Amino acid sequence: MRAVYKKELRSSFTTMTGPVAIAVMLFIAGYMFRTYNLANGLSSVIYAVFNSSLIFYFVVPILSMRVFAEERRQRTDQLLFTAPVRLIDIILGKYFALVTVFAVPVLVLCTMPVVLRPSGGSTPALDYAGILVFFLMGCAYLSAGMFISTLTENLIVSAILNILFVAVTMMIHNAYSMISGTVFTSMIFFVVLSFLIGIAVYAMTGFYWLSIGVLTVLAAVSLILSYMESGFITGSAEKILGILDFYSHFESFVYETFSLTDIAYFISAIAVGIILTHTSIVRRRWN
Amino acid sequence: MIEVRNLTKRYGNRIAVDDLNFTIGQGRIYGFLGPNGAGKSTTMNIMTGYLAPSAGDVLIDGVSIVDMPEKAKTHIGYLPEIPPLYSDMTVREYLSFAAELRKVPRRKIRERCDAVMADLSLVECADRLIRNLSKGYRQRIGLAQALVHEPETLILDEPTVGLDPKQIIEIRELIKKLGKKHTVILSSHILAEVSEICDTILILSGGKLKASGSPAELTKGQSGAIAVTVTSPADEKKILAALSPKLSKGQVRFSSDPAGLVRAEITIGEETVRNDPELASDPRRFVSGLLAQASCPYYSVEIMESSLEKIFLELTEEQETAAERKAAAEPENGKEAGE
Fold first, then answer.
1. If phi over 0 gives left and psi between -120 and 50 gives alpha, with beta otherwise, what is residue B121?
2. A242 contact partners, CB below 8 Å, separation of at least 6
3. What residue numbers bound the domain in which A29 lies?
4. Is residue B315 part of a domain?
5. Is B51's CB within 8 Å of A82's CB?
6. I want to staple A147 with a disulfide (CB 3.0 to 4.6 A). Which of A37, A261, A277, B217 is the partner?
7. Closest residue of chain B to A87, computed from CA coordinates
């Protein structure tokens, strides 16, 4: 793990990716800090941090698009995967290197409450809780981005999928009412979801008939449920959409509620990303 | 020692490696020979643990690459077809990384890197970025990377592809040198290369092992006959007359070469060869002796190296047509097997 971590960190700074990602983050976070705290005199940095979440659109693709995609494209994955190292160590080494680069600007964010201190009225506990969640959210994005980079060897495709993922998780809360508002739209949502699961099953197992079967059963169940249990289906649609809702889990901190649930949510998201990365690479070995 | 047992690899409904079995002993150079798509690279990728087999196993010193990959991989150095180089690193950085990745003890890393760089004449470019180095250098860095942890077995996939003739000779010499200390397995689709470097040849085609043995064994195993070509300014009759004391008319086939000379292909039968050890050891002397006795002028007398080539072609062509026939007969079965 150490070897991979050191190599990744080095290459982040010998290529443009590390410095560019850090510069973009510092620029946007600095601008938000100036606007909310310095120009408008807010005592808490939480709004600046909250609005800085815009940077994930830029930083996540810059940092994570190449992680495995580039190794595969250059065939250097043959060196990594034929070395006497466990796959999970390679993945964690790479992941921690990403997190380290991301941590540099986050550490700079940590100086913001200190800067505000002399002017009085700062709420450091809340500020640092906000920065912590911001950091965890970034880590969750990097973990998802790493998984996305195992899906393709094309860096552009990898970057676009990364941006899409950030967009969906940041905006999905706006779509709640649209999708789960009526029984009909919820039903459509579940049928579409059944298709997506069917496609995923096919991609993971390669069994054509199994995926058709899964798809049919799921779609039928959603149709039947929409007739019999309309309350259940609208509620479940919202719950399922909620899985991808990074934004709301982040937002709760702005309203000064420190919630362990949200922290647990982001930590689970990190774990899921790492597990999916592992599964995706193992699967490619077997194909 | 490497044992390959019932190794099979399917990609969807295509079978890349089909129930392969062989054993590789210690301290020699082995060559995988086969046309493109014969399953050489796939086999090597499975032997090194990069790909997982659909069925079967590879044992490296008795350790299964499927069940205990970390342990099995320590014994192997692998140079894939495209050297796995990070172009933004210097040669020394790259080799240190490879060494650390291969679990070389920390205090020995520097020493090992210096040693392989010296062995492969990379010292002068130790601090240059890999990006700026030529193909020949890259291939040597790839070899250095495979050697840095002193593995017992080296697996080299098409080590001379894309190099210029001088570099090809250098790499071949290097492999011969390495073959004295390590077991080397290399793949190639160039017959001359394999027969020059390797002690043992494994001919692969359509994912199956068609034949194996030393170059001499392979040619002998097929038939004991020897073929010799003579080019001569004399006419066919004169040549036939000169050869007649020992050879019959049926053993000689004439053709003319572009320069207007007569080319005679002489096949010396298995029986004759076996009865005459002197002939077997030096067929050219035998033929030139006959021609000289009859004062028949000649420009060259050569042993036809194509005998190994012929065997190779026969084996691989036969395999291809058989595979095609099979694929045409049962396209659906193959698909289900792939799932």
1. left
2. A248
3. 2-286
4. no
5. no
6. A277
7. B70
Shared-domain flag, residues B85 and B167? yes
Contacts of B60 in chain A (CB under 8 A): none
Q: Given a cut of 60, is residue B183 above it in pLDDT? A: yes
Q: Coil, helix or strand for B277?
A: helix
Per-residue pLDDT, averaged over A161-170, amounts to 92
For the stretch B221-274, pLDDT in tens is 555 567 788 888 888 888 888 888 877 777 788 888 777 888 888 877 767 777
| Residue linked to tokens 């070899």 | B143
Cα distances (Å, whole numbers) of residue B254 to A29, A35, B237, B240: 86, 95, 10, 10
When divided into structural domains, chain B yields a total of: 2
Distances from the Cα of A38 to the Cα of A31, A45, A120, A253, A256, angstroms: 10, 10, 13, 21, 21
pLDDT range class, residue B206, cuts 50, 70, 90: confident
DSSP-assigned states of every residue in B56-114: EEEEETTEETTT-HHHHHTTEEEE-SS----TTSBHHHHHHHHHHHTT--GGGHHHHHH
Residues B151 and B73 in one domain: yes
State chain B's mean pLDDT as an integer: 84
What is the C-alpha separation between B44 and B39, in angstroms, rounded?
Answer: 9
Domain holding B91, by residue range, is 2-219
Sequence-distant (≥ 6) Cβ neighbours of residue A271 within 8 angstroms: A143
Amino acid at B143: L
Q: Is A279 on the interface with B (CB under 8 A)?
A: no
Q: Is the pLDDT of residue B334 over 50?
A: no
Q: List the structure tokens of B77.
A: 């150095």
Check whether residue B142 and residue B260 sit in a common domain.
no
How many domains does chain A fold into?
Answer: 1
DSSP structure class, residue B152: S
Residues B215 and B244 grouped into a single domain: no
Beta carbons of B93 and A86 less than 8 Å apart:
no
Contact A82 B85 (CB under 8 A): no
Cβ count within 10 A of residue A230: 15
> Which residues in chain B have Cβ-Cβ distances shorter than 8 Å to A287?
11
The pLDDT value recorded for residue A125 is 83
CA distance to A46, A66, B89, per residue, from A53 (Å): 11, 22, 33
Both B194 and B140 in one domain: the answer is: yes
Interface check A285 vs B, CB under 8 A: yes
Same domain, B287 and B213: no
- End residue of a domain, out of B219, B248, B279: B219
Contact present, B229 and B301 (Cβ < 8 Å): yes
Please tell me which of the candidates A11, A78, A287 has its beta carbon nearest to residue B80.
A78
CATH at B263: 3.30.70
Query: Which contiguous run of DSSP H or E holds residue B38?
Result: none
Q: B52–A14: do the CB atoms touch at under 8 Å?
A: no
Looking at B165, B199, B219, which one is the last position of a domain?
A: B219
Round to whole Å and give the CA distance between A140 and A266: 6
Query: Which chain A residues are Cβ-neighbours of B97 within 8 angstroms?
Result: 3, 6-7
Find the CB nearest B88 among A15, A84, A207. Answer: A15
**Please, which pLDDT band fits residue B338 given cuts at 50, 70 and 90?**
very low
Instruction: Give the pLDDT of residue B333.
Output: 40
Edge-first strand order for the sheet with B14-24 is B14-24, B2-11, B55-60, B63-64
